[in-house]
Amino acid sequence: NTLVVFDTFHSALTVSPGTLSGDGQLGWNKPANSAHEVSAADGICGMSFKCNTDTAHAMIGLAHQQVGRWQDFDYGVTCRGAWAAYTDIYENGRNAYREGGRASNGNPEADVHAIFVNADNQVEYSLNGIVYHTSSREVTYPWHVAVDAYTAPSLAEVEYIQCGVAPPLVTPPPPVV
Length: 177
Hints:
Layout: E1 8-9, E2 13-16, E3 19-22, E4 25-33, E5 44-50, E6 57-63, E7 75-79, E8 86-91, E9 94-100, E10 113-117, E11 123-127, E12 130-134, E13 144-151, E14 154-162
Antiparallel strand pairs: 1-4, 2-3, 3-14, 4-13, 5-10, 5-14, 6-7, 6-13, 7-8, 8-9, 10-11, 11-12
């Protein structure tokens, strides 16, 4: 898979291909956007990422417009780190789904999250290759990958997923208690 490059980003963030990070309490509206726009004919059907640390708090996802704040996402997934024991999905500024039991971002260095447009043109959200939510929102093309950071964001292995290739099925190690 090809790494996502964040071409435009807030000065509080550090980016390199496939990664994004920042230090401390940033507050919302610290965005990063990839310039690459994906069309329905590109052969790219989604993206995957790791929350990377147990404290990372950010939203990452797909958007048909430049993201300046978390409400701009078409499809967004939260890494909530120390803030909450769940992963929230936001679509068009609204909470669309909550996946519980995710204290400290689960296994942040191992867990692979994905947002993927399936063969039926529906957006699926998966964790370690297991779909836990399917959106009812229609896909808007072109889309790009974006982030809005909140606290100590740290995203790793941010990659595009090719169409016809399911998000990786991963068996993470048990959480460290």
